Amino acid sequence: MNFEEQIAELQRGADEVLTTVDLRKKLGRGVPLRVKAGFDPTAPDLHLGHTVLLTKMRRFQDFGHEVTFLIGDFTSLIGDPSGRNVTRPALTREEIEANARTYEAQVCSRSSTGREPASTSTPAGSRSSRRRTSCG
Hints:
By secondary structure, the chain is of the alpha/beta class. The chain is built from 5 helices and 4 strands. Helix 3 (51-62) links the parallel strand 1 and strand 2 (66-71).
């Protein structure tokens, strides 16, 4: 699929693409992109709200680009800093690691395309050791 077709497909269903000019330029080089998205494991399972971004990441992967899902830990460590949302309490390191493992399993089960596998990198926070997992 040429890059114009890729752009059209990636924009499908998106309300706004902020850097279409840059995306065109990068896709026009003919070199696979490195696409990264971050998720914070505040709960053990990914939810419906994650599916839009996961679907777009899958499309990049379908087009042969390298996809990395960054699983961070900062918000999970501090909870909701505003104090308004009691459904996002601060989590322990063990809870964050357990949630991150379930995120990895869920992302990997949905991301394999038979091409270069997706990978996860967790946790992304500077206080934690990094772990990189290749799905596939």
